[in-house]
Amino acid sequence: MNYTNLNKKRIVVLGATGSVGRDVLEVVRQNPGDFEIVGLSCYENVELLKELTEEFSVKKTCSGDDDLSLLLAGPLDLVVNCISGGNGAEITRKALKLGINVALANKEALVSDGEDLMRIAKENGAMILPIDSEICAIHQCLRRNCVDENGNISWELIKQNVEKVILTASGGPFFGKTLEELKNVTLQDALNHPTWPNMGKKITIDSATLMNKGFEIIETAVLFGLPPEKIEVLIHPQSLVHGIVYFKDGNVMMHAAIPDMKIPIHYCLYYPNVKPNLLPRLDLAKAEKLEFFEPNRSTFSNLDKAYSALRNGTTKKLLEENDNKVSKFEKGEIEFIELLNVKI
Length: 344
Description:
It contains twelve helices and ten strands. The chain is α/β, with parallel strands linked by helices. A six-stranded parallel sheet has the order 3-2-1-4-5-6, with helices on both faces. α11 packs antiparallel against α12 (about 315-330). The longest helix is centred in the middle third of the chain and has 17 residues, at about 105-125. About 45% of the residues are buried. The model is unreliable at about 1-5 (pLDDT under 50).
């Protein structure tokens, strides 16, 4: 492919001042000339938003409770949704209705409104691209074996060809711990992620309880039309293998890369094209080991709660109950151990 002939993509970045949003803008910096940022949003960090607006010569911005749909006016190629929490579904819905592709880091949108968003995307010829490293890994594996004549991932081909998919999880800071050992966990303990240190506070806490992986189970089912019984989770402490797909012909495809969010972001920003990035490469010779373990469901029962919610149609309630508990934990109102048993 002649990369110099790629059309410049016009993009909007929602949640531009958060951890994922900043990574998106770093990918844009590393690839001058390939993207035009036409809109940015933040919630609270207005000073940083002003700096970014000047740096990227952005004409349209939103902050706080502004109407984000104002950023969707005019020709756009991609909306990158990095909003944290449960407020990302509505703007995703509006973008898809306009036929605009959405690169989605806001997993809550798919957990709460996934079926509706997928229907709207299909009706308007739009696409949802997953920025989550594990879901993006599955996307890349399926792209090479389950695409239709137009080059799009096909649910029907997934049904025909895929035996199961496996999402990997680092295990967070409490891998191998028992419930008894987790009784005195502090907020700082929960935020001390061993392999993904630069995530936002909410997702880091959810990773510590494995609820984040539960949400990714739901995401996977929604995006790829997979039933719960075909989605599994393995603990992989090294965080180098991000997704695994078992095919019915006996082949197994694994996606591996260094743990850096800019890799799936780069993939989504350029999709369906491919362009080399400037990031370090995974050196398997220096990887001492690749380990995989079954998750301890007696301690981390949130995984089973996610499967149940998926089967019972209560994923939105699961999201709301977990958000409420995490907020209370951050304020010191409940103990960490209460996050390990979210009731729905």
